[in-house]
Amino acid sequence: MERMAKDKVEETGELEWALLPRGEISQVEGIFLEKNTCNIWDKIWNFQAKPDDLVIASYPKAGTTWTQEIVDLIQNNGDIEKSRQAPIPLRQPFLELVITTYSGINQANAMPSPRTLKTHLPVQLLPPSFWEKNCKIIYVARNAKDTMVSYYHFQRMNKTLPDPGSWDEYFETFLAGKVAWGSWYDHVKGWWRKKDSHPILYLFYEEMITDPKREIRKVMEFLGKDLTEEVLDKIVYNTSFDVMKNNPMTNYTNVRMNHNISPFMRKGVIGDWKNQFSETQNKQFNEDYEKNMADTSLLFRMEL
To answer: Which residue range or ranges hold the Sulfotransferase domain (predicted)?
Structure first.
């Protein structure tokens, strides 16, 4: 009986999800953003930062949630129970997110200091008060091939974004920068340049995978904390992919997304693009990448 009831709930949830309309995108200064975000852009642009605000910035699907949980555990001195008192979106507002009656801006404004805020905005669209207040920023970047694949599957299961279409269609859309939050190239390069003039810790997803304790230590030092090796090891374990994937406070199972299509936390590996790219697509991508990355010292690892 319980199983039948559970199946009925799941079927009803699937039906409700299927009937939800897809989100739309519009533009702010030539950058594609969710339409709801564009509709309140003046409010976002005029957001008032505080000097002790911390911003976690990234292009979508680059390890943002992972970095958020690392930061939260460092701030809480490794107190796992404290970090598990609420889902991560409630602990760290998503600045530009607007869904029905929810607004990341409103949530941030209602929070006491110190605040930790999340954004996917490209550097030129970050509200100017963050630069004026000299707020610390952690930026995490992931190689473009894995980002593209992860973003594709994320759009499939998340109806706040437009339907991504087929993989072949999405491949072209992504390369053209016609996805929410714009071009991957411009995003990672813009934040890379900004780190020379602002307190920005620039992290790489691939380095976090390869040596998580070293990268977590970098975050700890950037935040001015001094935790014991025992606490660092505890944070390494509790922010591992398998632990976070099974943690309802980090895996977004409490958010209206269709995890049956694709889980929010899907694989968390380097080089999964090889399972998605055709040989022709890989050749096309490499040519496009070489052209667009010719003007930067920024380097990414596409595989282990």
So the answer is: 51-296
Which structural domains are found in the chain, ordered by start? 22-292 (3.40.50.300)
> Known catalytic residue: 259?
no
Q: Among the listed ranges 16-20, 88-92, 221-225, which one has the minimum average pLDDT value?
A: 16-20
Indicate the DSSP class of residue 94: B
Residue 186 amino acid letter: D
Which of 107, 106, 101 minimizes the C-alpha distance to 88?
107
Q: Can you tell me the distance from the alpha carbon of 23 to that of 158, in angstroms, rounded to the nearest whole number? A: 9
What does the mean pLDDT of the chain come to? 87
Distance of alpha carbon 252 from alpha carbon 264, whole angstroms? 7
Task: Decide: 181 and 60 in contact? Cβ < 8 Å.
Answer: yes
Mean pLDDT confidence for 279-287: 97
For the record, the structure tokens of 110 come out as: 């209602």
What does the pLDDT read at residue 154? Answer: 87
The residue from 120, 153, 198, 259 that is catalytic is: 120
The radius of gyration of the chain's CA atoms, rounded to the nearest angstrom, is: 19
Average pLDDT of the residues in 54-83: 92
Annotate 240-256 with b (16+ C-beta within 10 A) or e (fewer). Answer: eeeebbebebbbbbeee
Q: How far apart are CA 23 and CA 101, in angstroms?
A: 15
